[in-house]
């Protein structure tokens, strides 16, 4: 599983944990997160995230 970091605010999406409060189930791969999803911290779009190697 990978982690992705918002390059604007630093919020991290962890595929293993998902983002249940935003409707993204644990284990959801980044490519399966909807393209119109936005960062729960700062509101930027999915394109403003970068992958972090674990």
From TrEMBL:
Iron found in the keyword field: yes
Domain Rubredoxin-like: 1-52
Cofactor: record remark: Binds 1 Fe(3+) ion per subunit.
Protein's name in the database: Rubredoxin
Domain of life: Bacteria
Reported cofactor(s): Fe(3+)
UniProt record similarity statement: Belongs to the rubredoxin family.
InterPro entries: Rubredoxin, Rubredoxin-like_dom, Rubredoxin_dom, Rubredoxin_ET, Rubredoxin_Fe_BS
Any single Pfam family the record assigns to this protein: Rubredoxin
Alphabetically ordered keywords of this record: Electron transport, Iron, Metal-binding, Transport
């Amino acid at each position: 599983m990978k982690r992705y970091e918002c390059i604007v605010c630093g919020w991290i999406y962890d595929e293993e944990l998902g983002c249940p409060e935003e409707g993204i189930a644990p284990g959801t791969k980044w490519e399966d997160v909807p393209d119109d999803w936005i960062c729960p911290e700062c509101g930027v779009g999915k394109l403003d995230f970068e992958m972090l190697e674990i």
